[in-house]
Design goal:
The chain is of the alpha/beta class. It has one domain: Putative cyclase (Glucose Oxidase, domain 1). The chain is about 20% helix and about 30% strand. It has 6 helices and 11 strands.
């Protein structure tokens, strides 16, 4: 899923497909896409000057334990729902305190809307009319500043909710060198805690983000 009306979406150009003069088959393509499209990682420099670029993000942030906070019922009732600090504390009350260095994923259930861009984003063509749930600033502050988590992720298009125009969660996380993982899917298959997350982004030198493969190991 791509942000409405970017300069370009994913583009694949075929360079060769077929037999070569040497008598063997050969296939090659080239592609172009925005850094921030599909399942992707936001590097901190995306919203904070002089913070880490894609190639500088250490594996210690990208591979390790993960917790999944389920707010799908609240998101179903309010497509602009923002996760609160109370939601995080309620999760901890049931599943234990979130340790420093943990990766956090929010399950809103929003990936069920893919590939319908209008249902997923709220509007498929106008970025000023987006409506989808995400982190609230107080929850992000608790997780980043107090719990000192390694990464914030979510199954929607942004770690800030759809109508946001000032992106406080992006700015707060980026300032602390905490990357954001967006457009994740399959979170219903993960337990609240106990899984191991592997976030495998394209390592773009100087990049502000990039396409990412996400794998979870479930005990």
């Amino acid at each position: 899923m791509f942000w409405p009306a970017p300069p370009t979406h994913f583009y694949l150009e075929q360079l060769h497909y077929g037999e070569t003069p040497g008598g063997f088959f050969y296939s090659a393509n080239r592609f172009c896409l925005p850094e921030h499209g599909g399942t992707h990682l936001d590097a901190p420099i995306h919203f904070a000057r002089d913070r880490e670029t894609m190639d500088q993000i250490g594996l210690v942030r990208l591979i390790g334990s993960v917790v999944v906070i389920d707010v799908s019922a609240k998101a179903a009732a309010d497509r602009d729902y923002r996760v609160t600090a109370a939601d995080v504390l309620a999760f901890e009350g049931e599943h234990g305190r979130i340790e420093p260095g943990t990766r956090v994923l929010i399950r809103t259930g929003w990936s069920r809307h893919w590939p319908d861009a209008t249902a997923y984003l709220g509007d498929a063509t106008d970025a000023s009319k987006l409506h989808f749930p995400s982190y609230g600033e107080d929850a992000a502050r608790l997780l980043v500043a107090e719990r000192r988590v390694a990464l914030l992720g979510i199954d929607t298009a942004s770690i800030d909710y759809g109508p946001s125009t000032d992106f406080p969660v992006h700015r707060l996380a980026a300032a602390a060198n905490v990357p954001g993982l967006e457009n994740v899917t399959g979170l219903e298959a993960l337990p609240p805690r106990g899984a191991i997350l592997l976030v495998l982004p394209m390592k773009i030198e100087g990049g502000s983000g990039g396409p990412t493969r996400v794998v979870a190991l479930v005990p």
